Amino acid sequence: MIKHGDSGTNWLWKFLETLFNYQRGKVTIAITLMALISLTEGVGLLLLVPLLQLVGLDVEGGSLGQIEGLIKVFFSYLGIEPSLATILIIYIFIISFNAYLLRLQTLRSSAIQYQFSSYLRKKLFKHITYSDWLFFVKNKTSDLAHALTYEVERITLGTNQFLSLLASSIVLVVYILFALKLSGFTTGVIFLVGLTLLLILKKKTQSSSKSGFQISESSKDMYSATVKQMEGMKTIKSFQMEEENVSIFSKIADNVSNRYMDAIKSYSDVKFLFDVGSVVILSIIVYMMVALIQISTAELLILLFLFVRMIPRFSVIQRNYQYFINMIPAFKNIMELEERCKDAAEETFTGEDIDFDEEIRISGVEFTYPHEKDITIKNIDLTIKAGSVTALAGPSGAGKSTVADLIMNLIKPGKGEILVDGKKLDGKVTAWRSQIGYVAQDTYLFNDSIAHNLIFANPKSNQDDLWKALRLASADEFVSQLQDGLDTILGDRGVRLSGGERQRLALARALLRKPSLLILDEATSNLDQENENQILKALESLPHDITILIIAHRQSTIKNADIIYLMDQGRIIESGSYEELLKNRKGRFKELFQTL
Fold it and tell me: 359-593 belongs to which CATH class?
């Protein structure tokens, strides 16, 4: 949480530094446009002096007289005779030019805020993508999605408020300078009153940072609840939990609403107090100027015009600043998440390729997940021969999938080593994974065409490659019978296909990579016997140069493996062929097999 004082200020300056470092040129152009807008505002104000004179008001003497004299010199230099028509034509030109500059500045500022938010979003997504697997294990996907969407949108709004604050401040300076020229004392009083009001309302302003943090936390909870409730909708309906589901979500949604209302109430309170205080002070000053100072009518009108334009600027600046610092917690969350991703960045391959022609050897490997006391994998040794079919069997929680993660280099062993043809896998992430095809138990398919879901694995593939992979996976027949064939849209997570069809597509996708090693991680555990047989038949027809690692607990899935490693509680307790393991009637494999 951002604390008021140094911590919050540091993050504010960090935001400004990040913004200026990314778009220094564009921000400079935007500020230049703001200055030009302020200049045209000032010229427009100056034109009020001869305009008042032309309608019969006395502008001679004092500050107005000096300004009027300078304007006469300017018109004389241009060879123009001041007249009502001339002044109004120039005024129309100046205001039109001001409006044009304002349009340019609005477009520039919008480009800055949206390009900056896109930059932050892409940078964060890149760091999330390249962080290691354990980072995903430790973090909720909904929190990452929340940061990439909602929090970045808040930064977009905050950037807009900062640029608006900057523009209002520059224009306000012009008004103050002009007003000081007319009446230094009165303008000084107005300026001091404005600053005093800002200081009085400082506590209200500081609460925006706190409310910004609360909004981040409550919206994160809502995002998480939304994802969980939607993903579990089938279970919710099957248990008739709709009413409870709606009630839980409603409470979270109300909490978000309340946090927003707290922030808006703070904004509204500040604006109300500032506006009322300003008009009271302005009225007192007008009375003093008329009754005590006895200022001229022309000067009074211009000062009133200035003060009426100035006072709201203070309020706008105050509001922009509140919205801006309300955004800072979102920026802080994004930056801290990005740093955590960088700290968890996965090593990428920068050296020689790695060949797999002989064997994968796991020697004395141990692994423990962070923040867990029990060792997940305990001193295991196993060998996967190139071109063989190797199976990892055992009860749920035995550590089979963790071994697969170790082999894929998704996680690093705490002890021991993993060798491919005698070479360590350390630092060879990209080179090694390019040789692996992976099929998980819970297949993820995009809500897109079959072709897109396949090409995702190998973008260089052509249509012949797709059909070859489908044939190898025994999926070509059902795909060819679909009305749109490869162009068939699968629906969310492939909902339009059966479980067996999804798994065969997943197998085709893995084979499209032309892998040296194919890993099936409980890929048939959710399938019926017929669909499992189709997958197994497809595996039997694969080229012999593809090494297969099967993780399963079904007899039918593992019985044809060249070697089976039986795991229990993170250890390998038996190994051998299916027939060899069954011969050991006192072995754990025989005991488990009878219950499989």
Answer: alpha beta
